[in-house]
Design goal:
With 397 residues, the chain is an alpha/beta fold. It folds into 2 domains: 245 residues, Crotonobetainyl-coa:carnitine coa-transferase, domain 1 (Rossmann fold), CATH 3.40.50.10540; 89 residues, formyl-coa transferase, domain 3 (2-Layer Sandwich), CATH 3.30.1540. It is built from 17 helices and 12 strands. Helix 2 links the parallel strand 2 and strand 3.
């Protein structure tokens, strides 16, 4: 299979989540992604979780399939090497190192007019911010967690980092397409806070107080505006149940044997449960009726009964349970991969399939393993020149 970005080279000078995720996404699409780190590794090189060997499981996960060069990013000669890798290659760089003037779009464009540079920032004004501080500033922690909880609760998923990295990858592909047609480069900036604010606006979280003067309530595990609730089985398993349509609702009523009680409640309240509005409005009453059936049945019985209906449901699972489940071990998204420093495990490819195939990545490189090869291949440096750079502390391998 020919991947969409085959033959394209991207230089990535990055750390943590958003920029490396952009790079690994471009790599899975076929690009050669060269991750450049300072000698000894960037701040995320030893980030938890760690394997017994001390290798970062986190770092290897976000750098699969890339090539690694370690260069002194503070020295003029090291900065010149990185600039050459960019402008003498395909003229594309992705970075979150806002403080490196040598990687500014202006500096690179003076060397190559059609350069495409992507800078990932914390905030649109250039000030610092990370996923967890950005999240704190835009409202989501006050609608996360139990309904009776008073303070903020952070969610665990670094959602804005992920969205930012994917937006950046999309921006690269769009800029390359434009350049192919017009010859123009691009100065692209993507800010975590802007991504979070845009998402909040697109989903109505920020529009609602402007239009209706109301704030989104905290609902625990319920779903705003439609019926969704968690239930516990007789043997202690937790399930999430979602009813999006009248058919879903009728099927759950039938399987739980609550038809008479639901009709009586509807008559007493003047409610129409064929309406999503009323199913949401009276969700606590309905959940009280359904909860009895769940509490009387085991997880296996619940799964069997609901599987024969249209009801949307899933049992809550831990990460440890998921990795032994068929959704991993029998999923073509995952392949067995040997990662140096970690061993063999199921690693995901790209969640998008092309012609039925999920593009898969090779293992993450050992830090700096490709430094000499890249300088020879891309810049034409001789072995003597590479040895001189190594002896001077400008590169490491």
């Amino acid at each position: 299979m020919t991947l969409p970005l085959a033959g394209l080279t991207v230089v990535e000078v990055s750390s943590f989540v958003a920029a490396p995720l952009c790079g690994v996404t471009l790599s899975q699409l076929g690009a050669e992604v060269i991750r450049v780190d300072p000698i000894g590794g960037a701040a995320d090189f030893r980030r938890w979780p760690l394997a017994e060997s001390g290798t970062s499981i986190y770092w290897t996960g976000l750098n699969k399939g890339k090539r690694s060069a370690t260069i002194d990013l503070r020295s003029p000669e090291g900065q010149a090497l990185v600039q050459r890798l960019i402008v003498e290659g395909d003229g594309i760089v992705v970075t979150n190192a806002a403080g490196l003037a040598s990687l500014s779009h202006e500096r690179l464009a003076a060397m190559r007019a059609d350069v495409i540079s992507v800078l990932l920032l914390g905030r649109g004004d250039g000030s610092t911010g990370v996923d967890y501080t950005v999240n704190a500033a835009i409202g989501f922690p006050y609608v996360t967690g139990p309904a009776d909880h008073a303070g903020p609760i952070n969610h665990v998923l670094p959602a804005w980092d992920i969205c930012c990295g994917l937006y950046a990858a999309l921006a690269v592909t769009a800029a390359v397409r434009r350049r192919d047609g017009s010859g123009e480069g691009a100065d692209i900036r993507v800010a975590l806070e802007d991504v979070a604010l845009a998402t909040g606006g697109n989903l109505g979280f920020l529009s609602e107080p402007q239009i209706n003067g109301t704030q989104r309530p905290r609902l625990g595990n319920a779903i705003y505006g439609q019926y969704g609730q968690d239930f516990t089985s007789r043997d202690g398993a937790s399930f999430m149940v979602v009813l999006l349509t009248g058919r879903h609702f009728r099927d759950l009523v039938d399987v739980t044997g609550t038809g008479t009680a639901v009709s009586a409640v509807a008559e007493a309240l003047g409610a129409d449960f064929s309406s999503e509005d009323d199913r949401y409005r009276y969700r606590d009453v309905l959940s009280g009726l359904f909860r009895v059936w769940f509490a009387e049945h085991t997880a296996g019985e619940i799964t069997e009964a609901l599987s024969s209906t249209t009801v949307l449901f899933e049992r809550y699972r831990t990460f440890a349970e998921v990795v032994s489940d068929d959704r991993v071990v029998a999923n073509p998204l995952f392949t067995r991969m040997h990662q140096p420093g970690i061993g063999e495990y199921f690693a995901p490819g790209m969640p998008v399939s092309f012609d039925g195939v999920h593009p898969a990545s090779g293992p993450a490189p050992v830090l700096g393993q490709d430094t000499a090869g890249l300088l020879a291949e891309h810049l034409g440096l001789s072995s003597d020149e590479i040895t001189r750079l190594e002896n001077a502390g400008t590169i490491a391998r």
